[in-house]
Amino acid sequence: MHHCRLISLVLTAAFCTATSGQEHSVRNYDWVTSGNVSGSLVVERAPDGSLEAEFEFNDRGRGPKISETSQVDGNGLLVSLDIRGHAYMGAPVAEKFNADGNAVTWSSTLESGQAHGETQAGAYYWPVDGTPLQAALLAQALLNRPDRTLPLLPAGQATIEKVVEHPLSGQTQVTLYAIHGLGLTPEYIWLDQQQQLFALTYGWMGLAPEGQGSVLSSLQKIQDATQQEHSQKLAKNLAVPLPEKWLLRNVHLLDVVAGTTAPGRMVAVREGRISGIWLDSDVVTEMELADYEIIDGQGAFLIPGLWDMHTHLTLDDGLLQIAAGVTTVRDLANDEQRLAEIRKAFDTGTAIGPRSYRAGFI
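The chain above was modelled as a monomer; its predicted structure follows.
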């Protein structure tokens, strides 16, 4: 998993909505890396309903350390939020949100803004640098809505989907939910029967109740199957199988060696390899155009496939890489079994993704 992607995932954990009048309580979680505890999440609920969250983990000397104070109203929407500390790569975190009557204001190290009246009514503020608590508050608010949907501030819309229930030992049952709208791919969280956070799974990293890190491997397998099904649906709906021979016409060809572009070109491909390049105006006698499926490039630029030299592949990454023109990647660290499954899915076309080379852990 790429580090920047990791941070996005880390900040999509969950915890139940607090309501006023409840007893003081504390919940403790372990952050687990390759089977070893490397961090923690502590959430404290005060009798007045306010929530204090402390979150940190150590990833080879890097990692977030964030303190957060938040308050929600009877509908589960944020009333106030104060976030302090530093992010994964050490950048300072200072973020505030406040709702006062018909107006809301927010500020962070990246932006500031405000909304009034209908713009902010019933909307949930999604922070830049929240702790895992924030996605849980959002999940709870979404689950309380009949349509499971909420508008977001500063912009967007989030929905929640129940994916699968899973029984654990004893009387414990956990449920996997997918939150859509926070990014280009779903974010997954495991909640218990009280809709409180149970676990987060990210391959060789994850979050679990204190002392229960061993459950992450079984939950990861279930989540992997869910992501595989999602990727297979996307591949079926979006991918177009190419014939053995096809011709791309009307493109500007980028010559990366000469540093020039050549307009009005057509490129022939046979059995997955370029077999010829000509001017569109040429009469090409050495091949039978009737045997080729012709695709109009509509005057776009055609460039060699890009390489990403530092990845930690996930199924979700594949479609985004292809959309960005990345056709080959080098994976520098991953769970070997999961990586083998991901590569097989990409290579067989059951999921959309690039060619890949493995470097492995050092």
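Residues 1-20 have pLDDT under 50 and may be disordered.
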